[in-house]
């Protein structure tokens, strides 16, 4: 069967539910430095705004908004300890794989699969080994592979150059993903889970930005693609 092109996936919020892992780690990190509570609603508001793709930077911004004093390095140290614990037994153990059985296998029969994520490579590989070791994402562009993170399109441009596809789509869950796709001239498919705060606002932002489609679940993807 001839390959249609390449499907490029973001990871968090698309392939993996990170509400109880990375999102909760942001909340716990902010509390560590300020003693003040943060909420998923606040996090989603900043994600919808854009410029909040990196959760370390997001946590640092929220700490400073609350009058906390911390360096970026201190925030990263606390964030990683809360997330990964002593032996990957921190909040990362609470994340949940979203793709139903056979979804990626079925897509891989018609499309090349690639990954463009803001995670460090070892973090991405840890989750893929845990949940979907049989899936091949090639290329896989992670935090350390780009000079500038999303919304900069560098990662997508690298994937497009490496694959030279007839068709391509980028599947993401934030405005930074959407803007990266715009910058690389790659059609964007937005994922806006039914359970997230400010979902209607996010869907409207995706549509105003010219998204090819918006789905509430990654498992709707097969019925969305041409």
Describe the structure.
This protein is of the alpha/beta class. The chain folds into two domains: 5-17 and 96-224, HAD superfamily/HAD-like (Rossmann fold, 3-Layer(aba) Sandwich), CATH 3.40.50.1000; 22-93. Helix content is 43%, strand content 13%. The chain contains ten helices and eight strands. A six-stranded parallel β-sheet has the order 5-4-1-6-7-8. A two-stranded antiparallel ribbon has the order 2-3. Helix 1 runs parallel beside helix 3 and helix 1 (22-34) packs across helix 4 (72-84). The two termini are 16 Å apart. The mean pLDDT is 96.
Question: What is the domain tally?
Answer: 2
- CATH architecture label of the largest domain: 3-Layer(aba) Sandwich
Q: State which percent range the strand residues make up.
A: 5-15%
CATH fold node name of the largest domain:
Rossmann fold
Strand order of the largest sheet: 5-4-1-6-7-8
* Strand segment count: 8
- Output the structural class: alpha/beta
